[in-house]
Design brief:
Blueprint lengths: L8 E4 L8 E7 L4 E6 H22 L3 H48 L6 H5 L10
Length: about 130
């Protein structure tokens, strides 16, 4: 069997690196340095970096998507504030209405003498106006 020449060498800590080989990149998870021959290591490092950046750019949400998310977030915040305001407004309105109803009921219960027929037929004297 013929053994092919390898272009890539992975060397761990304490390993021996051949003379012409240079570090292209280091993989910290595996604790291995990836080595290539001298002129090739720069090209492969640049290609790996380009591939990484392209993958990040393609997976990232578009600017329009982020703007839509921001608009939805502000709309939700405005809607929440409007709901809180409406709840407070209605609670205040109910409280005011209930107070008015109580006042009217109290007035009706207290003023029985007004509903007598004699009191309705006679007009109370009008106060004289000052010039």
């Amino acid at each position: 069997m013929r053994e092919r020449m390898k272009l890539c060498r992975e060397v761990g800590h304490g390993g021996i690196v051949p003379r012409v080989w240079r570090l292209a990149w280091y993989e910290p998870r595996r604790r291995v340095g990836v080595y290539y021959p001298a002129p090739l290591h720069r090209i492969l490092r640049a290609a790996r970096e380009f591939r990484y950046r392209l993958r990040i750019a393609l997976r990232a949400p578009r600017i329009e998507c982020s703007q839509v998310f921001e608009m939805q977030r502000t709309h939700r915040d405005r809607q929440r504030l409007a709901d809180e305001y409406a709840r407070g407004y209605l609670a205040g309105w109910r409280e005011c209405f209930q107070t008015c109803v109580e006042a009217v009921e109290e007035e009706l219960g207290r003023a029985d003498d007004v509903w007598e027929v004699g009191g309705m037929l006679t007009d109370p004297p009008k106060p004289q106006r000052k010039n």
